[in-house]
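agent> fetching stored inputs for the magnesium ion docking request
agent> found them:
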Amino acid sequence: MLNRHWKKYGATPGMSGLRELSFFLKTAFGGLVTIEFASVLVPLLALWELAPRQGWVPDTLVPPLSRVAMTMWDMFVNHGLWGHIAISLVRFALGMFFALFTALPIGVLMGWNLFLRKHALPLFQLLAPVPPPAWVPITIIVLGVGLPMQTYLIFLGAFYPILFNTYQGVKETDPRYLASARVFGASEWTLIRSVYIWHALGPIIMGIKIGIALGLVMLIIAEMHGGRSGLGYMLLESKEFFQMDRMVVCMVILGAIGWFLIEVMKYVEAKLALWRVGR
Amino acid sequence: MIEARNITKFFSVVNDDRTADGLTAVLSVSLQIPEGRFISLVGPTGCGKSTFLEILAGLQAPSEGEVWIDGRRVLEPLPSSRKEMEAYRRRYRFLSPIANSLLRDRPKHDIAMIFQDYAVFPWMTAIQNVRFTLKLRGTPRARRDELAKKYLAQVGLAGSETKYPAQLSGGMRQRLAIARALSVEPRIILMDEPFAAVDAQTRERLQEDLQELCTSTRQTVVLVTHDIDEAVYLSDEIIVFSPLPGTIRNLIPVNVPRPRRRGDPELTGIRERVLAIYRHDAEHLCDWSI
Ligand SMILES: Nc1ncnc2c1ncn2[C@@H]1O[C@H](COP(=O)(O)OP(=O)(O)OP(=O)(O)O)[C@@H](O)[C@H]1O
Ligand SMILES: [Mg+2]
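agent> prediction call returned; pasting tokens
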């Protein structure tokens, strides 16, 4: 049983790319394609379709499912929705990249060393409570409207959750493991690479997940405050013309992106934290 | 040669009612362990044996006293006055005294330790655990695999090399810890109840192996154990700790030539002596902690 469990998480070496993909798809969509969930989802979708059609709610406020689907098709085919999604994703990826690139090392260093922690941590603790959207005006004035400003705002949203979770996880590394590595001669660098990071893997991935969620929030806020492209801009534009169906399409796509990224993180965690399965 | 001079260790503890309290775990223990000697530490539970062992290994700084290994001091004692405290803080403000070095893997002394709670890394498979310690000791990459396999087989873990500790039983994890410590072929090996969680047969076999190893390679061994038979059978000298605070209650030499036979009347006699000390302490329980 345990063995099978292990296999499922890909412990066997030399797994082909195709099988990796199917494993990912299975774990990602597995929770969606079940009878149990279908018994909840199908009635909900039916209600969404029926309620406006039957006049239970005004269909100017709640567009029925079929119209949203048609609009989505139309937007993909005729209005270049792909382009907007792509540009949003590029911005998001840039912001996340910078956040990961800075927050992970700083968090690890602060968790590892008391000297660095005492110097750096209070600064972050002072800055972090400022809600990221409060940075929007000053960022626009300093960086102008454009990619740097959007990247910076997304970075800001993702930075603190990743930083604090990494720091906390590394700080709380079990001293027994450190002692046992030290007896055998591990240098501090080896401890960081082979003990701290592995022990803190759970909190780090958790931090990245929260970072993704907050990064998406900041993506929409950034795109609503300027720019002529992206999903946030589309949302705002649809509001100007009172196009409910287009707004819903944007929301559905944003939800799907967030869900997909979280699933990717779950997959990464399952791959890296093989050893935690079965505990 | 391990030399402990007047080792004392205090802990400050916070009581339930939030008052601070002191606890003396080890009180002024002086000990000389010549090269190649097999020493056993026995004593009632919670008397500071593990603490003393960690001080020997340089994982905890003693509150007073010093440990010297081969003429080199292991860790300087903790500061006792405010002025010393400032200097101590300044000296170790970036790296703690127990750290090795920033970038280079190199043990301060040729010590291996088996911890009471094993402390094998759960994110490495059995063989990766052993290979990791070998790597820390600078064993060339090509030899690591072969050595790791050899030592895992020696403790009966052949076939479980690619399992994670979570997949191993408690006793197997303990044997993995033993293999990990033995694989680096240290000159000094500190063991904290290494055979506590293995079955009787395996324990006997591991004890024979250890006996053989020590007679052939002249390793210095400090063994903490609750099993008096084991202590008598294996060691050159048994050190009985008193109840808290841990001090040396008795030194009992075991001058029986090796190889020894289990159930040798001489060994049983020594065992009776140790038990008599235990019994005496239990009857005339004196409260050292005041
Ligand atoms: N970090 C600590 N802080 C406070 N008290 C401690 C600490 N570590 C150990 N102690 C205390 O020191 C005493 C000795 O502990 P130690 O672990 O050395 O006992 P031991 O002799 O190894 O016991 P056992 O045989 O059960 O393993 C105990 O009473 C314990 O409560
Ligand atoms: Mg102990």
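agent> quick read of the result: The radius of gyration of chain B is 20 Å.
agent> awaiting further instructions
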